[in-house]
Recover the amino acids of this structure.
């Protein structure tokens, strides 16, 4: 046993889910300086499978992704963790897409998004309470 045991990492994990790999690379590049672990997924179903193991502080998801929409992903994440924070990002719909939804994202960001605005939103949502 070490004399000085390491503290458990308190670095928040952020899941970024988008079916466009170039947008995942961009998100990873702009979010990693926030002192968080960024995990990217092109398939929301794979992200959901990893969700329980990783317990991310935040899920940033695109809306339109084929079999499972970003709203579906947020709903399923909240089913597993009712307090899950989420940002919905879309270039095809606006905030009205979730106006009558039972489960809503914490924030909505339209594509193309302003990088500094997204960074500030993420920073505010992953900040310790």
């Amino acid at each position: 046993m070490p004399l000085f045991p390491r503290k458990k990492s308190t670095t928040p994990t952020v899941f970024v889910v988008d079916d466009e790999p170039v947008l995942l690379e961009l998100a990873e590049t702009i979010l990693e300086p926030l002192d968080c672990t960024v995990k990217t997924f092109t398939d929301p179903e794979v992200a959901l499978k990893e969700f329980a193991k990783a317990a991310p502080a935040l899920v940033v998801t695109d809306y339109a992704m084929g079999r499972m929409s970003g709203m579906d992903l947020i709903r399923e994440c909240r089913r597993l963790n009712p307090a899950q924070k989420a940002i919905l990002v879309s270039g095809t719909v606006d905030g009205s897409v979730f106006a009558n939804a039972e489960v809503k994202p914490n924030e909505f960001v339209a594509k193309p998004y302003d990088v500094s605005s997204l960074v500030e939103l993420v920073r505010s949502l992953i900040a310790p309470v």
Observations:
- DSSP finds four helices and five strands in the chain.
- The CA atoms of residues 55 and 110 lie 26 Å apart.
- Confidence is low (pLDDT under 50) at residues 1-8.
